[in-house]
Write a structure and sequence with these properties.
Number of domains: 2
Oligomer: single chain
Strand content: under 5%
Number of helices: 17
């Protein structure tokens, strides 16, 4: 086991925070880049912006799959290091690179179908053409995205989140610098924005490659020449990775479902949801980082079969998440009438978005709970419970309940907001009971009375 992992496990509270804060910073860089990208593309006109916007589900699909592979890798490497099995951790890293490369090749072939895909994403002919221009570059460079995801997850699995944070900063700066050059100076337009992203990822990949293979700064000795394909390792990565990827895709489906329900109340209702959703994303972002820190920490204790320690980590993460989300919920609730004005000047949209925030602010602690509980299951190598928790919150309960309260119950837009809140309450309660029952079973065998 690496010395870093030893230090993290000696003080779980400090270890969790040390893992989580660099991930939070990396997520902030990602959010900043999204705003900057939209700013530069927006200068090309509304159709260019629409072209990138309709491409978002495709780009999000790539991110979801890559992130799924990454989460599976992080959880398994953490477990192996907890077992003091460094060799298997190194083999897991190599299998992750292979899986990332194979998946990327499938996405690369999608360049042959860019036309049909872009024509079925919505928008007029010109918007579809611009969307195709953007997606062609993204598909062509997908191997870079997947290898970056895999290498990032390897470092997170061994307890190093600061190096990925630094590389994320370099990637963000490169993208911000290259955006105006390719979009305007070289007159490449929307395709230039995509190319700037891909080339920035190439820089990030180069830094990861140097760190892992040339500088050999990692605690793992990853030697491609010693690679031996082991189906069980691939299966273990996918057992956590596939449900995680599907869960993330489910979130985009949930947004589409809520948009469909809101369409009966006009464009302003959809816009209000979009504004509220962006504010939610900013408010919850730190908890996503905390959840990403919970995964390897739980994995380390799982590897040592110290299930009481794993339970302690997830409960610590839960307390931190509840404290933060309760605080941010109060802030958002008190500013509910002001925050939407940052994104729009339309009084109707502001009014509905304010109503959304006044209700959903109460859901923030519940959302924080589901994120941490899902991460704990992933750290324990159980991807399916995480998938069910996410699907229950976002789709299975939320959409039917939102529809019922909006139309049959006659509550209108407010009914949609209440449906989201109530579904989150149900899934958070169900998730907490589920994971406590799970730990009670495994701890009762190993620790007797300590399981309580």
């Amino acid at each position: 086991m690496t010395e870093r992992v030893d230090r993290l496990m000696m003080d779980p509270r400090r270890g969790l925070l040390m893992l989580a804060w660099p991930i939070m910073v990396s997520m902030f860089f990602s959010m900043l880049l999204n705003f900057v990208d939209f700013f530069f593309v927006g200068g090309l006109g509304p159709k260019a912006l629409a072209g990138v916007q309709v491409s978002f589900p495709v780009f999000f699909f790539i991110i979801a799959v890559g992130s799924g592979v990454g989460i599976g890798t992080t959880a398994l490497i953490a477990k192996r290091l907890g077992e003091k099995n460094k060799k298997w951790a190194e083999e897991t890293a190599l299998h992750s690179f292979l899986l990332g490369g194979m998946t990327a090749l499938l996405f690369t072939t999608m360049v042959l179908f860019v036309g049909p895909i872009s024509n079925n994403l919505g928008g007029g002919p010109e918007v579809s053409l611009l969307a195709g221009e953007y997606m062609w570059v993204i598909f062509a460079g997908s191997i870079v995205f997947f290898l970056v995801f895999s290498m990032n997850s390897v470092l997170q699995g061994e307890g190093d989140t600061k190096t990925p944070m630094k590389i994320s900063l370099v990637f963000t700066i490169c993208n911000i610098v290259l955006d105006p050059i390719f979009i305007y100076t070289l007159k490449m337009g929307v395709g230039g924005a995509a190319l700037a992203t891909v080339l920035s990822e190439v820089v990030a990949l180069s830094l990861y490659f140097w760190y892992l293979f040339v500088g050999k700064r990692s605690h793992l000795e990853i030697k491609p020449k010693d690679f031996i394909y082991t189906p069980q390792i691939m299966k273990n990565i996918l057992r956590v990775g596939i449900p995680s990827a599907v869960a993330q895709m489910g979130l985009s489906v949930a947004v589409l479902g809520i948009n469909f329900i809101l369409s009966g109340f006009g464009d302003a209702a959809i816009s209000a949801y979009g504004v509220g959703f962006r504010i939610d994303s900013l408010a919850i972002m730190p908890i996503l980082g905390l959840g990403a820190g919970v995964i390897p920490m739980v994995g380390y204790f799982r590897g040592t079969r110290d299930y009481a320690g794993a339970r302690k980590v997830y409960r610590l993460g839960l307390k931190l998440a509840l404290a933060f989300t309760a605080t941010i919920g109060v802030v958002v609730l008190s500013l509910a009438t002001l925050l939407p004005g940052i994104f729009t000047t339309d009084s109707g949209v502001i009014s509905m978005a304010s109503g959304y925030l006044a209700i959903i602010a109460f859901a923030y602690p519940l959302i924080g709970m589901t994120i941490i509980l899902s991460s704990a299951f992933q750290g324990m190598g159980r991807g399916m419970p995480s998938l069910i928790i996410t699907m229950a919150r976002a789709i299975i309960i939320a959409i039917p309940m939102a529809y019922y309260l909006a139309y049959p119950a006659g509550l209108g837009v407010v009914g949609v907001w209440l449906g989201i809140l109530l579904s989150t309450l149900f899934s958070a309660t169900f998730s907490l009971l589920w994971i406590e029952n799970y730990f009670r079973k495994i701890c009762s065998r190993c620790y007797g009375s300590q399981a309580s």
